[in-house]
Amino acid sequence: MVQQQLSTAPQESPAAHPPPVGSRSVPVLLLKVAVLAVLLSTVVSLTPALVAAERWGFLVFFWVLVVLVVAVYATRRAIPLKYLLPGAVLLLSFVVYPVISTFQVSLTNLGDGTRATREEATAQIIGSSVVQTPDAPRYNLTVGTAGSPTAGPFAFLLVDPASGEASVGTEDGLEPLPGATVTDGFVTAADGYELLTPVEVNDASAALAELTVPTEGGAIRQLGIRQAFEGSTPLVYDEDAETITNTQTGVTYAPELQGDREFYVDPDGQRLSDQSWAADVGFDNYVRAFTDARILSDFVGIFGWTLVFATLSVASTFALGTVLAVVLNDRRVRGQKVYRSVLLLPYAIPSFISLLLWSGFWNTDFGLVNDLTGLGVNWFGGETTAKAAVLITNLWLGFPYMFLVVTGALQAIPEDLKEAAGIDGASGFTGFRTIIFPLLLIPTAPLLVASFAFNFNNFNTIFLLTGGGPFTPDNPTAGGTDLLISYTIRLAFGASGAQFGFASAIAVLLFVITGVVAALQFRLTRRLEDVI
Amino acid sequence: MRISLRAAVAAVGIAALTAGCGGGSSAPAETDAAPAEPDAAATTGAPARDDADLVVWTDELKIGAVTEIAEQFGEDNGISVAVQAVTDLQANFVTANAATNGPDVVVGAHDWIGNMVQNGAIDPLQITADQLGQYSEVAVDAVTYDEQLYGLPYGVEALVLYRNTDLVPEAPATLDEAFATGLELKEAGTVESAFNLPVGELGDAYHMQPLYTSLGGYVFGQDPAGGYDPTDLGVGDEASQAAGERIEELGEGGSGVLTRSVSGDNSIALFADGQAPYLLSGPWARADVEAAGFGWDVQAVPGFEGAEPAQPFTGVQAFYVASNGANKAFAQEFVGGAVNTEEAMKTMYDGADIPPSLVSLQESEVAADPQLQAYLDAASAGQPMPSIPQMGSVFEPLGQAYSAIIGGADGAETMVATGETIRTAIS
Prior knowledge:
Number of strands of chain A: 15
Oligomer: heterodimer
Distance between the termini of chain A: 27 Å
Number of domains of chain A: 4
Radius of gyration of chain B: 25 Å
CATH topology of the largest domain in chain B: D-Maltodextrin-Binding Protein, domain 2
C-alpha cells in the first residue's frame, strides 16, 4: 500500500516544483532524524548478536540497507530512489529471500528424521542407548565441588539408601566418604566440598552429564537433582572408522545410504536407529518430482482440475453476482436494500463455519441437500458428484463478493450513457451486452484475476469439504477434488512425516507455474482495459 | 504541507521495513514466572519458549492439571515454572527443540514417540523397575520404544462400546448380536443408524481396528521384544482379505450396518440424539453421552461370534523429557520424581479426565465410579497403537480402503491393493 501511495507522488515531484531550500519545517526534520536514528541504532544493537550467531549474510544485508537508507533519505541526491527503496527492500525481504531460501532447502533431504547434523545424530543414538544395571542401587545424590559451583570440578556425594553409607564419586571411581554428615538419607555437609543448590545443579547440567563414575557394572550417572543411577552404554562410536559398535553383541554399524538418507546399519542391512541426518542431495528432489510416474500423472490431472476449479468458480460466481446485481440495480425493484442485505449474508458468515455446515449438508443419509431434493446421491463418494458439490458450495461462498463488486461498478456507470444507448436503439439485453458489460469489466477485471488466484490456491474449501477425496484404494495421495495446494501439503506433511526438502522442490515448481499463469492473466486484463 | 506528508509516508515505510527485517532477531525478555495464562504466541501456532527454570509444553485440555503439578514442583524446589499450551504440539515441539528453543518437558500421546525419537527430540527415562511395575502393562509397553522407556504414562484410552439401554437393555455378548439388534431397530424405524462406527468418505482405520482384529487382521507384527516390526505388514494377507470380505457384507451393499454417512462429525451427535442404539467411541464421548438424557451403559468392544477377541488400539498419554531443553536436571527430576507419584496422577485424572494408568489409582477410582472399569478393560485388552514412524503411512490408505469396501468395493481385492500401497510407501 505504501508503494501505491508513493507511485503516484513523482508526478508532482520536486523536479516540477523545486522546493526552496529551507522550506522544511522543523518537526518534519526532527521526525526524519529520529526515524533514521532508530533504524541506525537498531542495526547497531543487532550487530553483536548477528556476529555471535555467524549470520554474515544478514549482517551485510542490514548494513548495506542502513547505508542505503541514510544515503537516500538524508541527502537530496537520489529523489526517485526515495520512492523506490521501500518497495524494493520489501520485495527483497518477503519475496526474493523466501524463494531463494526455499530453493536452498529443496536441494537437501531435510525433513523428519534428518533434522540433526551427523555428529548430533550419532551422539543422540549413543546417549539413548544407556541401560540401567539390573539390581544396582539407586543413590541419593548431592552434587559437591572442590572448586567453584559453576566451573567445577564436580563430585557426586552419594548415599546408598539401603546401607545409609556415604561415598564420593569422581572420574577416578567410587570411594568412601567418612567425614560426611548425612541427614534424611542425603549428604548435607562434607569436608573439602561445597554443596550445590538445586538451581546450581541445573545450571551445571551440561558439565554434570559428562561426569560418569566408573564402576564394575558400568558407570554412575546423574539423574535429575537428587538421584544417581548405575548404567552402561553398550554402543561405542569409532571416530576413525565412523562406525558404531555394540560392545555386548559385537555388531558394527556403518553408515549406508537408504533412499535419500544415510542410516547406521549392520552388515545385514538392519538399521540401528531410525535417526538419520541432514545432507545435500542436489537436484534429487526435482528428479523425483519429474520421474516418479505416480506423482507425474497425479500432478497433470490435478493441475487440470485446479484450472477448471478456479475458472468455473470465478465464472459462476461472477455470472450469478452480475445477474443479481443488475436485477437489483433496477430502480423499479422495491426493497433493494433488504434484498441486497440478505444476499450479502453468506459473505458475512466466516467461511470456515459455512464450509463445515456445507460438508454436513452433502451427507448422503442425513444431509440437507438430499433431504430437500430427495435425490439420495452419495455426493462425496463419486469424483464427478464431489466436484459438482465443491463447485456449488464455492458458488454459494463466492457470489456475494461479486454481487458487491458489480453493484458498486454499476452505480459508477452514468445513467445518461444508458439513456443514450436506449435512444440509439440498444435497449434491454443488447444495451447491457454492448454498453454496460464492457464498462463493467474495466473495474472488475483485476478483481477477477485476484479471485482466480485465490481459488487456484483455495485450500480451505477443499480441505474442509472433502479433504481432497474421494480417493481410490490404490492411490491414497491424490483425491478426486484435490487442488495442487492440498495435494502438495499432503505430499509434504501427510502420511510419512514432514519432507521439507521435497516439499520445497514442489513449492518452487508451483511458484514457477503460478508466475506463468499470473503473467498470462495480466496480459489478458491489459487487453480488457483497451475497451475505451 | 506536501513535503511533511511525504516525509511521514517515508517514515512509515522505513518503520515497516525495519520492523520487517529486525522482527525475527529480537529475543523476548520475559521474566514472569507465573504460568497463569497460555502464552499468546502459543495460540498463534508460532510458540515462543517462556523464560523459566522449568518450561512444560502441553495442550489446552491438560494445561490446568499440568500447571497444578508444575507449580507445586516449583514451590518445593524454589524455582520458577511455566506451562504453555501449544497448538500442533508435536510438530512445533520437534522443530523448536531442534533449534534449542523448545521446552524442557512435553506432554502428549505415545504414538508421537517414533517420530520424536527419529528426530532425536526426547531422552530415555531411567525409572526403576519397581516404580514401573506400578503402571498398567499396556501403558508401559506403549511408552517403550527400541527397548527404552521414553515417557511416563499418566492416562490410557481405547475404544469402547456405548449402548442406549432404553433401546437395548441387554449387553450384547458378540458384535453379531449388536448388529442384529441394531438392524431390527433400524428396520422398525426407531433409529436411523444400526451401529454408529465412524466411516465417512475418507474412512477411519482407528475405529475399524476392533473389527479388523476380531476378524484376524493385524497392521504390523511384533518382534520378540514387543516392538512393532515395519517389515511384517498384515494388511493384504489372507486374514485381512477375509476381514475385508466380512466388512463388505456389513457395508452399504450388504446388511447396511456400516455406512459412509456416519462419520467422525456426526457419530457421537446421532447417538446422543437417540438415533442409534450403539456407539463405538472412546472416553472422550462420555460427557456427551451422559448429557443425552437416556439410560446408557458402556462395555469393552466384544468380538465377532467364534472369532478372535476385538483389540482396539490403546493410546497412552505421557510426559517426556526434551533432548535439547535448557533445564535437563529439573526436567528429569520433574518427570521421574514429581509426576511419578499417586498424587500427581490423581491431579492429572481429575483435570485431564483420561482413565489413569497407575494401577493403585485405577483401583481407588473404580470404587467410586464403576463405569470406569469398562474403559480400563478396553485399554488393557487393546494393543498399543504402533508408534513407529511407518504407522503414518498406514492410517490414510487403510481408512480409504475401509471406506471403499463399505461403499461396495471388493473386500479382498481392495485389501491386497492397499497392502501394496502401504508397502510401497514405507519401503
